[in-house]
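A.,

Following up on our hallway conversation. Structure tokens first:
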């Protein structure tokens, strides 16, 4: 269940960003155990790449590899209302290390 503050942040951010085929939206979700990441084309409503793991760096590498295979080198980062800290930051840093622009 979303906290009230996170829900407000999430809806505010989602209203401002949109993913396309050339620059998909990279959406992050954290559970207590796993980190999930999806690269989403909002225009067509398709998920272009996804990954799930306990290690945030591994999630970033898997999504970056899938996007590189599809010749996509830039994404719009959607942190889903989470603070840019810890696991969320680790995914973003790993994407940058693998030549994906955020």
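Then the amino acids I'd put at each of the 102 positions:
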């Amino acid at each position: 269940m979303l906290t009230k503050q996170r829900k407000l942040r999430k809806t505010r951010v989602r209203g401002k960003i949109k993913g396309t085929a050339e620059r998909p939206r990279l959406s992050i979700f954290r559970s207590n155990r796993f980190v999930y990441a999806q690269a989403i084309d909002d225009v067509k409503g398709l998920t272009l790449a996804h990954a799930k793991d306990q290690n945030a760096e591994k999630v970033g590498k898997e999504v970056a590899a899938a996007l590189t295979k599809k010749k996509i080198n830039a994404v719009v980062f959607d942190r889903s209302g989470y603070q840019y800290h810890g696991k969320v930051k680790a995914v973003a840093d790993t994407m940058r290390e693998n030549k994906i622009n955020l």
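The longest strand covers residues 46-53. Curious whether your intuition agrees with the design.

B.
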